[in-house]
Amino acid sequence: MKKSFLISALFLISLVAKTQQYYPFPDSNTRWIESVGWFEIGWDQTCYLKNDTTIDNKTYNKVYHIYDHSQHDTLNGTYLGCIREDSLKRVYFLPSTENPIDCIVPSTNELLLYDFNIEIGDTITYFIDTLEYYDTLRYLYNVITGIDSIEIKNEIRKRIEFSSYETLGSLIKTGYWIEGIGSTLGLLSPIQYSDCGPGAFTSELICYFEDESLLFSSWDSVYCSTVQIDKIFSKDNLLKIYPNPTNGLISIELNKKKQSTIRVFNIVGTEIIRKELNQESIIIDISFLQNGLYIFNVHVDNENYNFKIVKE
Question: What is the pLDDT of residue 310?
Fold first, then answer.
């Protein structure tokens, strides 16, 4: 009886000690592979950390992402900003001044991304300001709705449930922050919102790698294979689209004759051009369109590839 009680007590002490361990936010050798959707088009992307930097006496890790890529390509990514964690278990993101991210809260100062000391009912509020296409959108609210734990690779990590609301009170997404990993809706999801121009923006974390070891996955995907994949897709090898910016004429070239569909969307997601292509090249004329940003979607080999083109 005493022996049984002692074993049970030791087990509980061990479990409590295990759950009390904090897993800090990673600072290197990581990959967040995400599925992203915007209106009718979607793509996969990878976010990763590369190098550190010091700003205002604070040490950050630089964050990059890359579209349609080799999982292990860390040479050609786009710099998004930098990320750091303080001693209070809060993770901050400082956006790049070039602001290359779609649908992100605009800021020249660092934004609170995660807070692993937060309590149920607490709210993190972001000021969005006036958008050109959606005058009533002013704020984004992340409300904490639950706190529990999740076991990952025999480790017990805190998990925080959150819901995001926009100014008019509409629920736009729910997800989880996982200690030491980030959001199940994508690395930067807490500061991304749906009305992007306006339009529906969605993202989901497919899988997360640390030191090239798969630590978390939401569904089975080739991207989550632990086998080294040197080249899933190289956009440069398959097609080229130029010039960018353009004054009206866009050339699209495939590496060989293939059946493909080309669609052009404006910033509010309206399809304005559709072309079927069964040859190696085509010229798309957008000179009749107003100056601004357009999305070129190329569907070829059962895949969708997207390009942002600026007409001047």
Answer: 80
pLDDT value, residue 230: 34
Tokens standing for 251?
């050339």
CA distance 105 to 102: 9
Say if CB 42 and CB 25 are below 8 A apart: no
Write the DSSP assignment of 141-180 as a string of letters: EEEEEEEEEEEETTEEEEEEEEEEEETTS-EEEEEEEETT
Domain ranges of the chain: 21-224, 237-311
pLDDT-derived band at 92, boundaries 50, 70, 90: very high
Cα–Cα separations (whole angstroms), residue 98 to 83, 95, 195, 201: 16, 8, 20, 20
What does residue 239 show for φ and ψ, rounded to 5 degrees? Answer: -150, 160
Regarding predicted confidence, which is higher, 277 or 236? 277
Query: What topology does CATH give the domain 237-311?
Result: Immunoglobulin-like (2.60.40)
By CB atoms closer than 10 A (0-12, 13-18, 19+), residue 207 is buried
| Contacting residues for 42 by C-beta, under 8 A, at least 6 apart | 35, 36, 304
